[in-house]
Each structure stands twice: as structure tokens, then as C-alpha cells.
Amino acid sequence: MEAQSVQGLDVAVLDAVIDEGGPEARIALARQLAALVASSETPAVEREQVLPVLLKLAVDPERAVREILVEKLSAVESLPADLLFSVIASEDDLALPFLRNTPGLNNWHMMAVLRVGDPARQSVIASRMDLSAEATAFILKSGSIAAVVAVMDNPAIRLSAADLHTIYGRFSNAEEVMERLLALPGLPLDIRILQARRSATRMRQLMAERGWIPANDASELVADAEECAILQVLVDAGDKELAAAVAFMASKQMLTPSLILRAACLGERRVVEATLAHLSGMTAARAAAVIYGRGGGNMKSIVNKAGLPLSCTGVLVAFSEVVFEAREEEVELSSELFGRRLLENLMTRYEGMTAADRSKQIAFVSRLGEEKVRKIARQLRVDIQRAA
Q: What's the rounded Cα separation, in Å, for the pair 319 and 39?
């Protein structure tokens, strides 16, 4: 049937079709009235006249009637809110495709669906390319896990650092959310650092509960894993991100001597420079000048200013000399080669270093260095102890 005007007709006739007509008659009526509403030539008064009839058809017990409305109204740019919500309230397999595709959904409609809708409808709203800023903020603060994941997967949405912190604050224990959050390239480093610590804590608790290995061994193993994960976050950071991450870690008492020595043993120059600069209150450029000045001779002063234990000095001096010499040679050293040179310096230089102190410095490398270097360091320490 073609769309035609119903102006002047008694709407009661249309009601009679619903009340007395069979399924075929109601299907035909649904098709006609939907076409009428969809036509840009239909006067507003006629749309108002047929709206009560369409609302009845939207809840018709015959599924085919409702299917016709979904099919014919899905492309209509402007629908009365009552009719829109009636269609959205239908079965999921009818309502969700309609909700996903209808251009007639404005911000007010979105917010209404988000406030009363189930996770499935929230998720569909969250995946729309026209998702509004207000709707995005609502989902992040109050939406279901499925809706938040849909927002993160929505290519039209650019989440701010504040948005990402909101998500982490709500769902740090939700694996599905964290998997996607950690995969985001622009994720703030403090979130990555906190998640590394949280994951280590959970692993420590799990090992303790199940008694997989002795408690002391478990604690050391998990602490190493946590520290390695955090160090990798710092290594991958840009210069500005690194400075901000170091400041954050300092505020959380996470800039430990162990982390700094691990970075030194692995030759992670930028991390060592950034951490020592922050702890000593220097600019990065000034700290680098002190660290590498006079072949490492100024390292003791920066260790003091940074508040690190004096026992760290030996490894850090050796670190500064290896970096200095590699620059002179214009070579890039892998973690393994850097560690080998570090050990060579600790074994053959620093005449004033006692055998006991030399053994202690090498012990740091045996625990914190690259895997192959650790083995060498352990053997060297045994040799030193035998010689003593």
C-alpha cells in the first residue's frame, strides 16, 4: 500500500483495524503508517494523528507487525520519543539493530536509554559513531562493563587521560576491561605502573594461599617480576612521560634503590638519569653532566643528594663509566654486553674497593642484571670469596 494522507479520517477506523482486524490487516496498517511517518511530505499534524495508532502497533502481539515497524522506521531521521522508546523496548533481536542504526537518536534519547536500559542497550549506545560527550561521560562513570568496553572499542571516541583514570578507578579488577585498557597506546604511565604493582600483589597472595613455593622465595620472585614490569614501562616512555612517571613513583615511595640499580645493571641510561635527577633535585641535563663528568668521579655526590645508600655507589660508578666509554666508542650496547662491561669494570678497576665491597657490588649484578650476566656474576662472586 502506498503512503497516503489520513487527514480528515476518523482515527477510530484505524483503531478498529487493530482491535478487530487479523494479523495481515495489522501488518498492512503498520506498513502504511510507517511509510506515512517516514515521508518528508507528510504534515506534522498527520504524524500526530497516527502516533497513538503506531504506539499500539509497536506493542502488537504479532511479531511480524513489530518487524515491519522496525524495518520501515530504522531510517527515519526524526521520530516521536514515545514511538522511539516503544521500538527500543521490543525484543533484543529487533530493538538492538534498530537502536544501533536509527538516525533519530539525539543526546536526550541516548541519556534516557542509558539511565534505564540494560547492559545490552547501553552497549549499543556506546558503540554508536554519534555517541555524545555527555553520554560518554555517563557510561564511563556509571555504565556497565560491557558499555565501557564498547566505548573503548569505539573508533569515534577519543578518551582523555582523565577518562582513562575513571575507567581504571572503577574496573581495575575487571579482566575484560583491563585487557583493553592496557592495550591502549596512550594509556597514562601511572596506570601501567599501578597495574604492575597490583598484578604482583595478586600473584604474591595467590602463591601464599596455594603454597606453590616457600614464602620467602615467592616474595622475592614476585618483587622481581613487579620491578621488571615497572622498569619496562619507564624504558618505553618518552622523555616527558618518563619525567612525569618518575615523579609519580617518587610520590608513591616506589623509586627504590633496587629499581635504580636494576636499570643501571641493564644499561637503561634514560631511566637512571631521570630517577637520579628527580631524587637529587636537578634538571635532567645537569644530572647527566654530573653522572658522566670526570669518568664517574662525581657519582658519589649525586648518590648522596639522591638519598640513596652508599652501597649503591660502586655499581652506579661502573654504570657511568661504561656509558661514557660506549659514547666515546660510538657503540650501542645490548643489556648483555652492557652487563659484561659493568662486571669487567667492577672486577678490574677501583683499587680502593675492598674484596668484600667488590663482592657486594657483583652480588647486585647477579640479582639485577641480564640473565646471562647474572650467571657470570654469580660465578665471579664465588671466585672472589674463594680467593679471600
A: 77
